[in-house]
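Course assignment 3, question 2. Fill in each field.
Student: A.L.
Task: Predict the tertiary structure for the chain below.
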Amino acid sequence: MTLKSAAVMLACMLFIRVFSQHNDPKIVVPHVNPALRFTENNGQWKDNILLKATLDGGALYVEKNALAFDFYDKEKFRSLHKAGAYRQKYKDLNINCHAYRIFFDGCNMVNSAEKM
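Answer field:
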């Protein structure tokens, strides 16, 4: 495991650990998968994104000098996907989403992703 990979994994674990310590039942915490699979950006996303990993209820984007986390209400999304809108289970069809970006100021900029 390279130093970059270790730093990314450590940042992910710290972020999820900090934000998973709550008592509010309205907050949805994504399931942590120890085997994240990163997809290389081959032009399908904006140029600043190098890699993307799908999380349970969100996504992690690795950028040149940042990590971006994008989370959504997975339970409502799955319910709507399983005909919840048709059965009128929800009056509000909007899905709550939150995004966080962690910048690494003064870091060495990464210009490409290398396969391991």
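Instructor remarks: The first strand starts at residue 38 and ends at 40. The CA atoms of residues 36 and 46 lie 21 Å apart.
Grade: pending
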